[in-house]
Amino acid sequence: MLVLRPVELTDLPQLQRLARESMVGVTSLPDDTERLRRKILDSGAAFAKDVQRNGPENYIFVLEDPSTRRLAGCSEILATAGFSEPFYSLRNRHFTSASRELNIEHGVPALSLCHDLSGHTLLRGFHIDTALVRTPASELLSRARLLFIAAHSQRFADVVITEIVGYSDDEGESPFWDAVGKHFFDLPYAEAERLCGLKSRTFLAELMPQYPIYVPMLPQVAQDCIGRVHPDARDAFDILEREGFETNSYVDLFDGGPTLSARTSNIRSIAQSQVGVAQSGLAIDARGSYLVSNDSLQDYRAIVADLDYRPGQPVTLNAQMCAALKVTQGSPIRLIAL
Amino acid sequence: MIVRPVNVTDLPALLALARQAGPGFTSLPASEERLAHRVRWAQRTFAEQVERADADYLFVLEDDDRQVVGISALTGAVGLREPWYNYRVGLTVSSSPDLGIQRQIPTLFLNNEMTGQSEICSLFLHPDHRQGNNGRLLSLGRLLFVAEFAHLFGDKLIAELRGSADEKGSSPFWDSLGRHFFKMEFSHADHLSGLGNKSFIAELMPRQPLYTCLLTEQARAVIGKAHPNTEQAMKILTAEGFAHKGYIDIFDAGPVIEAPISNIRTVRDSQPLVLAIGTPDDEAPVWLIHNRRLENCRITSARARQAGDSLIVDRLTAKRLQLQPGDSVRAVPLLNRQPQAVAA
């Protein structure tokens, strides 16, 4: 059984392994011990802090096999995008080009740098072992964040967004980057992503194009990357799309990957999750698979469990589940069908 | 040869010239109706019946047999009736000192900075007459006219030189930029532009600056490059002090060359002199001479000798200028005899 819990300082070596394995575009996971140590400490402080409204907090979760203590994945929630450093996106918007005299009117799409997504809650840093992609574990790693938001809604914004890693080829070359970013940054795609994870994002502001980039002027291969999901990020995308997240007109600055967004209260795992009380039992005549969380803060835990759940009734959990969730008879729990 | 204001009776000759020039010469469309309109307008201009904003001084080059072999024009001001657009080729620097990165990116800025300046345009000389001083006379005659009537013009003269295009008349710059906003072929846009719809077309262009690094390589290569067939015009005007200061045409990226009127050699060096009849020898320099009249303007080039305040020309030259000895002329040596000063 895999358990999702807040990251701890002892996880540092394993977190760095995960960072090393993660996709190039997952910039919140730099392969850098000091940066990761700082991030773990900040996360611990975020879970410990008394928060009345969303601020700079960043919550990191890890997926652990308690029997081996091995970490199989990690994910994050940044309470407020753009709170401590600017959060940039490219807005893809049509500029209307019109001439009444010539009876011509058409829209020309253009990408403009913006901070429009600042202030929203950002899901990021999602990475899971390849073997666990498209399994319940991957659902747990992604959606347990949503159950956490449901339990602690005052800590988060009214809108939740995420950036999905965009397309790059087998050699790690991004056609979008080559057509856009490279001109301004003079760096290969992977190097730019790496710096983005390591350095303050102010370097982005210094280098970024301030004027619109007209889409039809880009080579077709680059245009095709706008809003295109990297094959390895498809799982992360699909999970959130099923949660009610939708793509919008914002794309990532570096690789053109899509942004997903949803009103917090409309997200399926938030709107439809049920609160119940735990009841310890032995045999469970399972009727379905669920994501179950304990609604705690620093002791937050979430698992996937096969349960005999009946709305309004106490939820029977076996001893292993109770231990994993750190709950006892009568503890409040939250659950949603897998 | 003389340069004189166009006349309605020149219409058939103009039409023939327009046909000779071909469709690439958009400011001289081979349409009788449009040409007739332009000629009438020019006549009103020389009669001082139109405002500077609308003034269109259309000249023809005529030989002694009254055959019209060339045309050139001068406008009072661009952009005063409808906006006049150019791109300025500027620079954007993308720099991060921390990372040791500095990118210099030429950037096109849409502007109306030429508003109110006067434009020289529409020069076409029949191929059979591209010899001797004909080209210079047709082109520089306009400048001498400006010297005489500076109050009718702006502070600067500008000339938009045709940009690079392939044999089919298609422009790499247009294909990389304008086409996306107009959804039409360059030749069509160019045609509309020639019909005077330039600002309507410009309304469709993006207002924001454009990074040239996002243009195709072929498009970048022609920014500020004049079409090879403008080489001679460029050479003549450059010697007069015209220079490319970074402004280009928004459609084909051809250079806009410009000069403050007071710095133009023909303007600066020209002087009023009293006409005298004599026999200037074959060693005498060739002068560009204007009869100082507006509606009855006559400009010619001829060998002449300056003696004090007098300019000695032969009888035929005086006749071409419709002047008598003792009349005043404005004149300047046709060729710049001083070695060109090296710009500081």
Any overview of this molecule?
The complex is a heterodimer of chains A (338) and B (344). Chain A contains 11 helices and 15 strands. With 338 residues, chain A is of the alpha+beta class. Chain A folds into 2 domains: 3-90 and 113-269, Aminopeptidase (3-Layer(aba) Sandwich); 274-337, Barwin-like endoglucanases (Beta Barrel), CATH 2.40.40.20. The longest helix of chain A has 16 residues, at 33-48. Mean pLDDT of chain B is 90; it is low at 339-344. Chain B folds into 3 domains: 1-77 and 124-153, Aminopeptidase; 81-115 and 155-267, no CATH class; 270-333, Barwin-like endoglucanases, CATH 2.40.40.20. Chain B has a 16-stranded mixed β-sheet, with helices on both faces. Chain B contains 10 helices and 16 strands. Chain B is of the alpha+beta class. In chain B, strand 4 (86-96) and strand 5 (101-111) form a beta hairpin. Chain A binds chain B through residues 95, 97-99, 101-102, 104, 106, 108, 110, 179-180, 183-187, 195, 199, 203, 206-214, 216-218, and chain B through 92, 94-96, 98-99, 101, 103, 105, 107, 176-177, 180-183, 192, 197, 200-201, 203-206, 208-211, 213-215.
List the helices and strands and how they pair.
The complex is a heterodimer of chains A (338) and B (344).
Chain A: E1 3-6, H1 12-21, H2 33-48, E2 58-65, E3 70-78, E4 89-99, E5 104-114, E6 121-128, H3 136-151, E7 159-163, H4 175-179, H5 181-185, H6 189-198, H7 202-207, E8 213-214, H8 220-223, H9 234-242, E9 246-251, E10 258-263, H10 268-271, E11 274-280, E12 288-293, E13 302-307, E14 315-317, H11 319-325, E15 332-337
Parallel strand pairs in A: 6-7, 11-14
Antiparallel strand pairs in A: 1-2, 2-3, 3-6, 4-5, 4-9, 5-8, 7-10, 9-10, 11-15, 12-13, 12-15
Chain B: E1 2-5, H1 11-21, H2 32-46, E2 56-62, E3 68-75, E4 86-96, E5 101-111, E6 118-125, H3 134-148, E7 156-160, H4 172-176, H5 178-182, H6 186-202, E8 210-211, H7 217-221, H8 231-239, E9 243-248, E10 255-260, H9 265-269, E11 271-277, E12 286-290, E13 299-303, E14 305-307, E15 310-313, H10 315-320, E16 328-333
Parallel strand pairs in B: 6-7, 11-15
Antiparallel strand pairs in B: 1-2, 1-13, 2-3, 3-6, 4-5, 4-9, 5-8, 7-10, 9-10, 11-16, 12-13, 12-16, 14-15
Helix pairs in contact in B: 1-2
